[in-house]
Amino acid sequence: MSVLENRQPKTAPAVPAGIRPPDTRLDSWKAIAAYLGRGVRTVQRWEREEGLPVNRLAHEKRGSVYADRNEIDAWWESRKRTLSTTAPAQASAPAAPPSTPVVPAAPERITWMSAATFWPALSSDGRLLAYVSDGGRDGSSSQIWLHQIGGSAVCLTRGVAERSHLAFSADDTRIVFTSSDDTGQSVFAIPTLGGEPRILKRGARAGRPSPDGKWLAYLTNDQQGGVRIAALDGTDLKAEREIAASLIDVTFAIWSPDSSHVLVLAHPDSATDADYWVVSIDGSTVMNTGIVQRLKERGAWPIAFPATWSGGALVFSAITSTGVAMWRQRIEAGTFRPAAEPERLSRGSEFDWFPTAAAGRVAYVSTHTDQNIWSIAIEAGTGTTRGPLRRLTRGPGFVGHLSVTGDARTLVYFFGRPGVLGMMRRDLETDAEAELTPELRLEYGYPAVSPSGAQVACGARVPGPRALRPIFLVSVADGSTRKLGDDFGARPRQWIDERYVVVERFGGRLNSVGVVDTTTGVATDLLAGAERSITHPRVSGDGKWIAFDATRPGGSPAVFVAPMHRETPIREDEWVPVSQAASNAFWSADGAFLYYLPTTPSTEFRNVVRGRRFDVGGTGFTLGAPFTAFSSPEMVMPAQTNAITPVATRDRMIFVLGDFRGDVWMMDVSR
C-alpha cells in the first residue's frame, strides 16, 4: 500500500470557489513531480496522456503551472483503480510513488574536492568526519581522510591499498576500517588524530565496534554465512563466537544503538531475497524485519552498502525509477519491526549513498550520475586502443549488460533512466537505436542477444518474498515473448550458439555457471568451484574457450580460462590462471586477445583495461605478456555492479564509463 493510499483527506476551510489553501498547492512542475515521486517529464506526459489535473495561471506563460494535492490524490486513486481493472492478468501496473520526500533541513555540503569519495563515518558527536578519497587527484591511491566539520581535512594513511567500511570507536579515539592488499582483507584500527594502523582481525572485513565499546562485529573471509562477535580489546578470546550462522551472503553488520543486537543484510537460502535481519548478540534471536520486502512493493530496492542507525530509525540508500536516494525507516523499540511508512530523505537526482549518522545528523556521499556507453578504436594486430573516445549514449542514470551479435553489428544493453527501465537495441554501423518492447509487461534486465540477433534472452524482476529468477526469450522482430521457466536461479550472460545460453547462478554461498537449452528449457551444470564463486563468464567467439572470475569469499577476484565443453562440467584442474588481481574478462572479436580489468588500486572502480595475446595451438595455447590496452585518466568503470563487463567488436572496444566524483553532504534528521 502506497503513501498516497494512506494519506488522510484534508478538511478544507471555507474559502471562495477556485481559491485553494496554500498548504495544498504545488506551484511548479518540480513540486508536482516531487509530490508524486517521479521526474518532471513523466508528470508532464501524465498530464498530456492520462489527465493529471494541472492548472495554468491566467495571463502567464504556458510553463507557469500549479496543482492541488487533493485533486492529485483523487486522480491517482482513480488511475490505480482503472489500471487494476484493465491491465492484463500477466501485466504489472506501475507502482505507486514510493514515498513523498520528507524534505528535512536543506543538506549542507561538507567536502569540496569533487573527488572519488566513499565510506564516510561520523564521530559520536557529529563533529568529525572520516572518509576514503583520492583527494581529487586522478591516478592517486585512495586514502583515509579526517575532516573537522567546518574546518579542514588531513590525510591519515599512505601507500597503495583498498580501504573501506570506516567506523569510529565508541570513544572516537580510533577509526576501524577494512584494508585489502595482495594478502587479502583484514580489519585495522588507526588513531583518529593519526598514527600507525594496528591490525584487529586478519582474514576479516566490515569490522564494526559496538556503541558500548566492548565488542567488534565482523565478517570472516573464509565463509559468507554468519557474523563473528569478539571482544574489541582482543583480551577475552573465549568470548569470541559466531551468530546468525543460518544466514548467507551477509554483506555488512551494524550495531543497534544499545549494543544488544546487530543488523545485517542477508538471506537464509537462495530461494529468498535478501532483507534486513536483526540478530541478538547471543544468537538467540534471528528475525527478518521485512523492510526490503516492503520497499520492493513500493518500487524501491536498497543497495548492498551498509545502512546506519539514526535514533530510532534505520537510514539507507535505495534505488527507484527516479534515482538513488537516502531513505529512513522508523523502527519500533524492542521489536525491531517497521513503524509507519518508509520516508525518502533526499531527492535522489544524483547517486546518494554510503550513509552514516550521529547526533541527529546524517552524512552521505552524493556522486554524479553520468554513466554511459563509450567506444574507442582497436588497433589491428596489437590489440591496443587508439584515437579519441566516442560517446554512444547520453543522459543521467545507469547502463550495463552489454551484449553483441555474432557479426558485431548490433549491441543490446540494459538502461535505467529517471522514470524508466528497459532494454535497448543499437545498430553499431548506423547508430540507430530502438527500445525492445516484450509483449509481457514486466521489469526486464540482464539481456543477452543471440548470435544472429533474432532473439534476446533476459531475466525479469518478480515481486514477492521468494527470489524467483525466470528466463524469457524475446523476439527482436515483433516482441513476442516466451518464458523458458519460472525459476532457474540464474540470469543470462551469453549465447553459445542459436540454441544454448550461458547463465550465472547466484543467491547461494557460491556462484556457479550453467547452460540452458532454449528449445527444451533444460539447465545443466557447466562450471563451479569448491571454494570459489564463479562470475562473469565469457565464451570465445569460436566457442572453444571460456573466461571467468573465481573469487574466494571475502577475497579478490582472479581471471581464469578453461576449455569449453558442455557434455560434462569443467573441472578445476582445467583452469588456467590469467591474472591473480583482475575480473570481468572479455574476448576480442577474433579471439586473438583476452582482456580484463585489474582490481588495483580499487575493486569498485576501474580505469584500466589490460590484455594478453591468446594463441591456440594444436596441443594447447600460450598467453602473451600482459599489456595495457586502454587507460582513462578521468572516467571509470563502476565495477561494484555486475553489469559492466566490456565487449569488443572487430574494430572497437565498447564499455561503460562514468564520472563518479562527488562530495559528502550532511542533513539534520533530528525531527
How many strands, what sense, and barrel or not for the largest sheet? 5 strands, antiparallel
The number of distinct helices, counting runs of at least 4 residues, comes to 5
From the N-terminal CA to the C-terminal CA, the straight-line distance is: 24 Å
CATH topology type of the domain at 370-659? Neuraminidase
At the fourth level of CATH, the homologous superfamily of the domain at 370-659 is TolB, C-terminal domain
Q: In percent, how helical is the residue content?
A: under 10%
How large a portion of the residues is in β-strands, by DSSP E?
35-45%
Number of E-type strands: 55
Shape: globular
Rg estimate, integer Å: 26 Å
Unreliable runs, pLDDT <50, ≥5 residues?
1-22, 58-63, 80-103
- The structural class is mainly beta
Going by CATH, the architecture of the domain at 370-659 would be 6 Propeller
CATH class of the domain at 370-659: Mainly Beta
What's the pLDDT, averaged over the residues? 84
